TrEMBL record:
Every Sulfatase N-terminal domain range: 49-459
Keywords for the protein's UniProt record, in alphabetical order: Calcium, Hydrolase, Metal-binding
The keyword Magnesium is annotated on this UniProt entry: no
Species per Swiss-Prot/TrEMBL record: Steroidobacter agaridevorans
Family: Belongs to the sulfatase family.
Biased composition, class Basic and acidic residues, residue ranges: 1-10
Name used for this protein in its record: Arylsulfatase
InterPro entries per the UniProt record, alphabetical: Alkaline_phosphatase_core_sf, Sulfatase, Sulfatase_CS, Sulfatase_N
Length: 779
């Protein structure tokens, strides 16, 4: 083969092939000429722009101050003034689908992530496994010479792959990111997160003022400084997936106090004030009206003053969290500017991976895990804990009506296939590539448009083959034409939306949608074929208040037919409105790491075992048999625990005696303690739980403690967690994150004896449970 060293590489095939040099016939290295070293460089070499994606979690269009919202976000505003605001950028209706679409340039169902990862099924479009034929942007940029890093929340993993057993193909560190630092589930305790560096679980830093948003920002700043110091000519791609503002709403008190009293007027008045500011700023048309609140939302003035105070505090916490998130992102932006790289950084900041969340229910929650398990919050509990909201002992969420106000001037929110759920305030900032500053762009866009925009801006072609796999075409359209032309037509003319049977279709300004089931409703409103569709002219009706279905029935039918065409094209069918059933792997049809096993053997030091990679002990009888060695003087500490302060269980030793504690959402604590200490030497400790059974999940049962085969005590547990133990994993030999019980210290509860092994055995589970009417699932 001839010398191809000077030919431009074919960047449609990645990785770039190394050039082949002719054979060397010279014997003496002193006389031979070495071939040129193959160096992987971006096509524009030193002129290639850096790329930064920033994504905030669960924030509505009506929140950011620079778009007219009530929350001060100085960094977002700074970039908006120096760049462009987009008021018609759309996401998917919920978290995981948006993230996969953003990172791949394909529709979420095309990438098999039509819903949140934990609700995967066996069907294409919903099996949660990103195809090899869809390479993420990070991999494309990495193979073209970029340094790549991701910080924060990753919620794109199939749940059965979230363990050391993998496979890890879809983990961030194997999806194109040279560096990943963050957490791998849909939510996390922000004071005590389960952190990963690459594919390695690492200890959570233990400092009095620790917060994960500060931590991931520190890591991002450290990485970009180091990367630019070592390779200043190498552009970077950073994906900063913020922990805020997803529940639990956790933020230091000083940020909450900045908003004290600023929401005392309530959600009804707040929506009016926000719309007025939006019109004044021009982020919505001057004729925009407020969409009416759902009937389920109570007027603010219907609550007593003491209740209003609790509800207002919830919004103060959320707003403080949002500003704190902005502050941390601002530190990263400042670090990039200090490096002299901000002008040539294409930075895209999307304020929300979906709209405001209705998951807090009518009065919000102090412990959102309880709400997700169908245990309604009480105002008495909220009143008791009002001063704890936002702090480490809370795991709260604001009331549903604040989520509606977050979507101003629209209503609905997360999970609904309406613009309230998908329209998110967006800023694009790139001084070297965008001449306009502080302008507004109103063209319809979707997050799948950002990958082709980046390729367009960097001069990279869309790859046809990546790592030997022929690629599916990118489904988004570049929005580069809007950067310097406010009147440029959107290249994105058709877009479907779907989640849980809620669906919509957009075409050239027209928009048809149907609400199959609201998140606050116990059952679908109708069968799929009988759903009521609405029709809007989205070009003239920003908040979707004027339903034109009766006036233009033929237009509506045409759009409904178009939805079916797009649904078939992008693997949206079959529609699936199941909720509870889809959290059961066997019913949903997805893989389960445990499969049909009825026992699991564990060993000392196995920590961070996520709920989806752990044997299911809920709603059934089970045994925990621990083979221990107790040293002279006795042992202390946790043998095995699952969960944390929001709910869970722990088998541990206190003052030499074995104890079992069951924490029912922090509201009821059940303890069963052995009356005699564990003997010195080899000991078999067994906890046996006999479940009451019955049609209602989360029932109680009797618990017995055995030492070397002899029963030493028995106790009663009246209630158990029915569906989710939450994001805090199971740990052997310690309770790693927040403690299940205050009977031992957080972070200092390791078992001081030796655990030879633990065997968990489970009995059959009744699959005919009646789900609670108030339970509506997780998004």
């Amino acid at each position: 083969m001839g010398d191809t060293r000077h030919k431009a590489p074919d960047r449609t095939i990645l990785p770039l092939p190394e050039p082949q040099s002719p054979p060397i016939t010279e014997i003496d290295a002193r006389k031979a000429k070495a071939p040129a070293r193959f160096e992987l460089k971006p096509p524009k070499d030193a002129g290639a722009p850096n790329v930064v994606f920033i994504l905030i979690d669960n924030m509505g269009f009506g929140d950011p101050g620079c778009f007219g919202g009530p929350i001060d976000m100085p960094a977002f505003g700074f970039l908006a003034r120096g760049g462009l605001r987009y008021n018609n950028m759309h996401t998917a209706p919920v978290c995981s689908p948006t993230r996969v679409a953003l990172l791949t340039g394909r529709n979420s169902h095309s990438a098999n992530m039509g819903g949140v990862a934990e609700m995967g099924t066996a069907f294409p479009g919903m099996n949660c496994v990103r195809p090899n034929a869809i390479a993420p942007l990070a991999e494309i940029l990495r193979l073209n010479g970029y340094g790549t890093a991701m910080f924060g929340k990753s919620h794109e993993l199939p749940p059965w792959e979230l363990s050391v057993s993998g496979p890890m193909d879809r983990w961030p560190a194997h999806s194109g990111f040279d560096k990943f630092y963050g957490f791998l589930q849909g939510e996390s305790d922000l004071y005590s997160p389960a952190l990963y560096d690459g594919v390695t679980r690492i200890p959570t830093p233990r400092t009095p003022d620790y917060h994960v948003s500060t931590n991931i920002t520190d890591q991002a700043i450290r990485w970009v400084r180091t990367q630019q110091s070592l390779t200043p000519d190498k552009p970077f791609f950073i994906y900063y997936a913020a922990a805020g503002t997803h529940d639990p709403h956790h933020v230091p008190k000083r940020w909450i106090d900045k908003y004290k009293g600023k929401f005392d007027q309530g959600w009804d008045k707040l929506r009016e004030e926000t719309l007025s500011r939006q019109i004044k700023l021009g982020t919505v048309p001057p004729n925009t009206t407020l969409a009416p609140m759902p009937e389920v939302v109570q007027p603010w003035n219907s609550f007593k003053p003491e209740v209003q105070r609790v509800l207002a505090r919830q919004m103060e916490v959320y707003a403080g969290m949002a500003e704190h998130t902005d502050y941390e992102i601002g530190r990263l932006v400042q670090a990039i500017e200090d490096l002299g790289e901000l002008d040539n950084t294409l930075l895209v900041w999307i304020a929300g991976d979906n709209g405001g969340s209705p998951f807090g229910g009518p009065i919000g929650s102090f412990n959102q895990l309880a709400s997700f398990n169908g245990v309604p919050e009480t105002m008495e509990n909220l009143l008791e804990h009002i001063d704890d909201l936002g702090g480490p002992s809370a795991s709260g969420h604001y009331a549903m009506a604040w989520g509606q106000a977050s979507c101003t001037p629209m209503v609905g929110g997360q999970g609904h296939a309406t613009f309230s759920s998908t329209r998110n305030a967006t800023v694009i900032h790139w001084p070297k590539g965008i001449k306009a500053q502080g302008e507004l762009r109103c063209q319809f866009q979707h997050v799948i448009d950002l990958v082709p925009t980046v390729l367009d801006a960097t001069g990279l072609p869309e790859p046809t083959v990546v790592n030997g796999i022929t690629q599916r075409p990118i489904e988004g359209r570049s929005l580069l034409n809007t950067f310097d032309d406010a009147t440029a037509k959107s290249r994105h003319t058709i877009q479907y939306f779907e989640y849980g049977g809620n669906r919509a279709i957009y075409q050239d300004g027209w928009y048809a949608t149907t609400l199959h089931k609201a998140f606050w409703e116990a059952a679908p409103r109708a069968a799929f074929e009988n759903d009521t569709w609405e029709l809007y002219n989205a070009e003239e009706d920003f908040s979707l208040t004027n339903d034109l279905a009766a006036r233009y029935p033929e237009k509506l039918e045409a759009l409904k037919a178009l939805f079916l065409t797009e649904a078939i094209k992008y693997q949206v069918l079959p529609l699936d409105d199941r909720v509870l059933e889809r959290f059961n792997a066997a019913v949903a049809g997805r893989p389960d790491l445990m499969g049909p096993r009825t026992s699991l053997t564990l060993y000392e030091g196995m920590i961070g075992l996520s709920e989806n990679a752990f044997i299911n002990m809920k709603n059934r009888s089970y045994t925990i048999t621990a083979e221990l060695d107790i040293p002279e003087g006795g042992a202390e500490g946790v043998i095995i625990a699952h969960g944390g302060h929001t709910g869970g269980w722990s088998l541990y030793v206190k003052r030499g005696c074995a104890k079992f504690v069951y924490n029912w959402f922090g509201r009821e604590i059940y303890e069963v303690a052995a009356p005699v200490p564990l003997p010195i030497g080899a000991v078999t400790l067994r906890w046996e739980f006999i479940y009451d059974g019955g049609k209602k999940p989360g029932a109680g049962g009797r618990g017995d403690i055995f030492i070397n085969g002899e029963q030493v005590t028995s106790g009663r547990i009246d209630r158990t967690i029915p569906f989710f133990t939450g994001t805090e994993p199971a740990d052997v030999g310690m309770d790693d994150l927040t403690p299940v019980t205050h009977d031992y210290q957080a972070y200092d509860n390791k078992f001081t004896g030796t655990i030879r092994k633990i065997v968990i055995g489970v009995g059959p589970v009744d699959e005919t449970f009646d789900p609670p009417l108030e339970w509506n699932g997780v998004g």
